[in-house]
Design goal:
Chain lengths: 63, 793
C-alpha cells in the first residue's frame, strides 16, 4: 500500500508540469489575441492555382 | 438604374465611371490598381474569403516623408538590431478574414518583409522586415496602395514594448491548481470512515494539503492583505478586511487542527474561497481591446510635420521639435499640430476633430489657425506661434484633472456595506468568545475562529463583481462600451446630465436642408446637381446627396475657389454656387443670423439659397423628456446661440442652455456643478469636450464609428444607440438594486453559518458545503436577475 506515496508524488508532479505549461503559455501572449488564430488556421498555403473556396465561412466578428 | 457594386470595395458603381478589367467591374482607378497588384502576386484569394473586402486607396503623396528621418524611425520601430526591424502598425481598415489573409501574406507583395502577423481585435499588424532591403516608408506606401493605410500618430512616438499585466491570470491559475489538488486530497476525509489504511496515511495527506495551500495563501491572495492593510491605514473599513481576516484565521486554525491532530482543517474551503474570489475579479474585467479610453491629443496628432527652413528647403521634423517662429507646410488632409498664423492666402480648415462641426471654416492670410484643425484643399504655409504643449487645445491636458490618475473617485457599494459588516462581525466573534470562555477555553477559541471563518464575506464580495461583469457584457452587446465596472455604479448615482451640442445631440451625418427663393426648372436642377458632383466641399456633398437623382451632363468649365464657391459652365450657361458675397445675393436673402447656406446663381440671375440646419439625432426629443423627469439636463455648446430658438422648441422647458463655451469653461462648468454636490454625467464627442469628460463623474463619448478615435472617457457609446441613454441609466440603477437583493441573500447564508459557528458545531464538512453553495446561488442569482432587468425595455 505504500505505493500510494509514489502514486501521489507522480500525480502532483504531473499536475505541476501542466501548471508550468499554463504559465508559459500565458507569458508568451497566447491568450492575448483569441480571435486571429481561429481564422488563421483556416488558411491553406493558397496560391491562385490551388485556390480553395472558403467562401464566407468566417463571418465578420464584432469583438 | 441597375445597382452594380465594385468587385474590390463593394461601393455602388456610377455608370459612367465604371472600369472593366479582367471581367470584373470596379468603381474607380484605385480599386482596379489594388486588384492588379493582387493578381500580379497571385493573391486574388483575397476575394474568396469575403465579398468585396477592400478599401479604395487614398492619395498620400508626401504624407509619410517623415519616415525617412532616422530619429523618427527609431521611435516608431518596435525593435531594430542589425538589419532586422519590427514594427507594429495600427490599421483601422482591418475588418474581416480577407484582411488577415492579405496582411499575413505581405511578403509576397514586397520583398524584404520576412513575416507579418495580424492581431485582429487590436487591428494591428506586426511586420518583421529587412531594413537593408526595404524601408518602413516603402512598406507604408505599399500598404496604402492596397487600401490598408496605417494610422501613425504622435502616440506611436513613445512606443516600445508595452507591458501587459498578467498577474491576475497567474494568481488565478495558481489558486485553481491549489484548490483542485486539495479538493482531491481531502476527499477521503469527508467520509470519516474508520479504516485502517486511511488512518495510516492521514498525516501524509494532511501534510501535503498544508503544503499545497501555501502558494494560494501567500501568492494568490496577496492582494487582499495589501488592500486590507491600506484600508486600515486610511481608516476606511472596506470589504477586504474581513476577507483577509477570514483567510488568515482559517489558515491558523486549520494548521493548529492538523498539528494537534484535531481534524483535517479548512484548507479546502480556504483555497476554494480564494479561487472563487479571484474568478469574480477576473469576470469583472472585460476589455475592449479595439477601443481605448485613455486617448489624449497624441492619438490625433501627426508624428511629424514639414518645416520650411530659411533656405527654403523642406524637412520633416518631429512635432515636439517645432518652435515658435518656424514655418510649416500643411498639405491637404493634414492636421495642424500647433497654433499659428496663416501665411498662405487662404485656407479651408475643418475643425470637426475638435468641435464635431462638419462644416469647414475659411481662413485668410494673417488669421490665427488653431491646433487640431485639418486643412482641406491646397497646400498651405503657416508660422508657428506656440509650441505643441502650449497650444490652445493641448493646453487643456496640462489641467490637473489629466495629471492625477484617480484610482477610485468614490466609495463602492460593497465598501459602504462593509463599514457596518466588519464591526458587527468582530462584535459577534468576541461576544461568542466571551460567552464560551466561562465554560471551556478550547470551545471559546473554536467559536471565535469559526465565526470569522464562516462569516468571511465570500458571497458578499462576489456579488458586485459578477453583477457588474454581467451588466458590462450586456451593455457592450448593446454598443455602450464601459471602461470598467466601477462606471456602472457611477452611472447609477448620476443626477445631472450635461450634453454637448455639436456632434453630440446633433449628428454630423445628416443635415436638414431647406430652400428659399425662386423655384428651379427641371433643367436647372439637373445642371445644379451635376456641378455639385464635381465638388468635394462637404456642403456640396451634402447638397448633392439631398437633391434628387438626375442624368449626368458634361461640365465644360469648372473652377472651385476655396472658401468661396464654385463657378462652372454647362451648355454655355454659367452657374455660381457659394457664399452670399461670392454670388452677390440681394440684401433680402442675406441671412439674419449666422447660418450655413449655399447661394445659387444661374445664368447671371440670383435664384435663392439652400440653408443647412443642424439635424438633431433621432429620438432626441423623446429621450430628453424621459430624462428630464429624473435628471437635471443641461446643454453646453461651443457655438454662438444661433440655434437657441430651435433647441428650446425641441427640448423640455427646464433645460439649461449655455452657449459660447470654450473647452476650459466646459470643464469649469462641470466642476462648479460638482461643488454643489451634484453627480454629473457629461456626454460629449469632440476633443474640446475632453476636459469636461475627464472632470465629470461619468464621461460618455458619443462616436459615429467606435473604431475611430474618441477622447479619453469612461464610456464610449455608439451614436446609433444614443436615444437609448435612458435605458442604460435605468439598467445601471437596476444593477445596484440587484446587488442589494443579493446582499440580503448572502447575509442570510452568513446567519445560517454563524448559527453553526456560535454553537461550536462548525465541522470542516459543513464549511466545505456552505461555502460553494452560497457562491453558486449568489452567482446564478445575480446573473439571472441582471439578464431579466436587461431584457425589460
Amino acid at each position: 500500500m505504500s505505493v500510494i506515496y509514489l502514486l501521489i508524488t507522480v500525480s502532483i508532479f504531473i499536475a505541476i508540469c501542466f501548471f508550468i505549461a499554463f504559465i508559459v503559455a500565458v507569458k508568451s501572449g497566447q491568450y492575448d489575441d483569441d480571435y486571429t488564430p481561429s481564422v488563421r488556421m483556416l488558411f491553406d498555403d493558397e496560391t491562385k492555382i490551388t485556390a480553395p473556396n472558403i467562401n464566407s465561412s468566417t463571418e465578420e466578428k464584432q469583438v | 438604374m441597375s445597382e452594380q457594386s465594385c468587385f474590390h470595395c463593394g461601393l455602388t458603381i456610377l455608370k459612367n465611371e465604371e472600369i472593366d478589367f479582367d471581367e470584373k467591374k470596379f468603381c474607380c482607378q484605385g480599386c482596379k490598381t489594388v486588384y492588379e497588384i493582387f493578381s500580379l502576386h497571385d493573391l486574388t484569394c483575397y476575394y474568396d474569403f469575403e465579398k468585396s473586402p477592400g478599401a479604395t486607396p487614398q492619395d498620400i503623396q508626401g504624407k509619410y516623408d517623415f519616415l525617412d528621418s532616422e530619429a523618427i524611425l527609431s521611435k516608431v520601430l518596435e525593435f531594430q538590431e542589425g538589419n532586422t526591424a519590427i514594427v507594429s502598425l495600427n490599421i483601422p481598415h482591418i475588418h474581416c478574414s480577407s484582411c488577415i489573409w492579405i496582411l499575413e501574406n505581405l511578403n509576397r507583395i514586397q520583398s524584404g518583409i520576412s513575416s507579418s502577423q495580424v492581431n485582429f481585435p487590436e487591428k494591428k499588424v506586426r511586420i518583421t522586415f529587412d531594413s537593408d532591403q526595404v524601408s518602413l516608408k516603402s512598406i507604408v506606401y505599399m500598404l496604402s496602395s492596397i487600401g490598408y493605410e496605417p494610422y501613425i500618430s504622435l502616440e506611436n512616438y513613445e512606443t516600445g514594448q508595452k507591458n501587459v499585466d498578467r498577474t491576475l491570470t497567474y494568481k488565478l491559475g495558481m489558486a485553481f491548481f491549489c484548490f483542485g489538488n486539495i479538493m482531491l486530497l481531502s476527499f477521503p476525509e469527508y467520509f470519516e470512515i474508520k479504516e485502517f489504511w486511511l488512518d495510516n496515511y492521514k498525516p501524509f495527506f494532511r501534510g501535503l494539503i498544508f503544503i499545497l495551500s501555501l502558494p494560494s495563501l501567500l501568492y494568490s491572495a496577496s492582494d487582499y492583505y495589501v488592500s486590507a492593510y491600506k484600508s486600515i491605514k486610511s481608516k476606511m473599513l472596506n470589504i477586504d478586511i474581513p476577507i483577509a481576516l477570514g483567510i488568515i484565521v482559517m489558515f491558523v486554525r486549520s494548521t493548529f487542527d492538523v498539528v494537534m491532530n484535531y481534524g483535517s482543517g479548512f484548507f479546502d474551503s480556504l483555497t476554494g474561497l480564494i479561487f472563487f474570489m479571484l474568478l469574480g475579479k477576473m469576470f469583472q474585467i472585460k476589455t475592449y481591446s479595439f477601443l481605448s479610453f485613455e486617448r489624449d491629443f497624441k492619438s490625433y496628432f501627426p508624428i511629424a510635420v514639414t518645416r520650411i527652413n530659411l533656405d527654403a528647403s523642406e524637412e520633416s521634423v518631429p512635432i515636439y521639435d517645432v518652435e515658435k517662429g518656424n514655418r510649416l507646410l500643411i498639405r491637404n488632409q493634414e492636421l495642424i499640430p500647433v497654433d499659428g498664423i496663416l501665411i498662405s492666402e487662404k485656407a479651408e480648415i475643418d475643425y470637426s476633430f475638435v468641435t464635431g462641426e462638419a462644416v469647414s471654416i475659411e481662413k485668410k492670410s494673417g488669421d490665427k489657425v488653431f491646433a487640431g484643425g485639418k486643412q482641406i484643399g491646397k497646400v498651405i504655409e503657416m508660422e508657428v506661434l506656440f509650441s505643441v504643449s502650449q497650444s490652445y487645445l493641448t493646453q487643456l491636458w496640462s489641467n490637473e484633472i489629466f495629471q492625477k490618475k484617480v484610482l477610485q473617485k468614490h466609495k463602492t457599494i460593497t465598501d459602504a456595506i462593509s463599514r457596518y459588516f466588519t464591526p458587527i462581525l468582530l462584535l459577534i466573534a468576541f461576544a461568542g468568545f466571551g460567552y464560551w470562555i466561562f465554560f471551556d477555553a478550547n470551545i471559546a477559541f473554536n467559536v471565535f475562529t469559526a465565526v470569522l471563518i464562516v462569516a468571511c464575506p465570500c458571497a458578499l464580495a462576489l456579488t458586485a463583481p459578477f453583477t457588474f461583469g454581467n451588466i458590462l457584457r450586456i451593455l457592450g452587446k448593446q454598443k455602450l462600451y464601459l471602461k470598467n465596472a466601477l462606471v456602472i455604479e457611477q452611472l447609477a448615482k448620476v443626477d445631472t446630465i450635461v450634453f454637448d451640442k455639436t456632434g453630440t445631440i446633433t449628428t454630423i451625418k445628416k443635415s436638414d436642408i431647406t430652400y428659399e427663393g425662386v423655384s428651379f426648372s427641371d433643367e436647372n436642377l439637373i445642371v445644379l446637381k451635376n456641378v455639385l458632383r464635381a465638388s468635394n466641399h462637404p456642403l456640396s456633398r451634402m447638397l448633392y446627396d439631398f437633391l434628387p437623382e438626375t442624368k449626368k451632363l458634361k461640365i465644360d468649365d469648372f473652377e472651385e475657389i476655396t472658401g468661396k464657391g464654385i463657378v462652372a459652365s454647362v451648355e454655355n450657361e454659367t452657374i455660381q454656387i457659394g457664399s452670399a458675397s461670392f454670388v452677390g445675393a440681394p440684401i433680402l436673402y442675406e441671412s439674419q443670423i449666422e447660418k450655413t447656406a449655399l447661394h445659387i446663381k444661374i445664368g447671371g440671375i440670383y435664384c435663392g439659397k439652400y440653408t443647412f440646419k443642424n439635424q438633431y439625432r433621432d429620438g432626441l426629443e423623446k429621450l430628453f423628456f424621459a430624462l428630464s423627469e429624473k435628471y437635471q439636463i443641461k446643454v453646453l455648446s461651443g457655438d454662438n446661440d444661433g440655434e437657441r430658438a430651435n433647441l428650446e422648441a425641441v427640448l423640455p422647458k427646464n433645460t439649461e442652455l449655455i452657449f459660447n463655451q470654450k473647452p476650459e469653461q466646459k470643464l469649469e462648468f462641470i466642476r462648479q456643478l460638482q461643488e454643489k454636490g451634484q453627480n454629473v454625467m457629461m456626454v460629449g464627442d469632440g476633443l474640446n469636450d475632453a476636459g469636461a469628460l475627464a472632470q465629470s463623474n461619468v464621461g460618455i463619448s458619443i462616436s459615429e464609428n467606435v473604431n475611430v478615435f474618441s477622447p479619453a472617457c469612461d464610456a464610449i457609446l455608439d451614436a446609433s444607440e444614443f436615444s437609448r441613454l435612458d435605458y442604460f441609466l435605468q439598467l445601471s440603477q437596476d444593477s445596484i438594486k440587484i446587488i442589494k437583493m443579493s446582499f440580503v441573500l448572502s447575509l442570510l447564508y452568513n446567519v445560517i453559518g454563524l448559527s453553526f459557528a456560535i454553537t461550536g458545531n462548525l465541522l470542516p464538512l459543513v464549511a466545505a458545503i456552505i461555502m460553494p453553495l452560497s457562491t453558486i446561488t449568489i452567482v446564478s442569482f445575480v446573473t439571472l436577475m441582471s439578464n431579466f432587468y436587461a431584457s425589460r425595455k
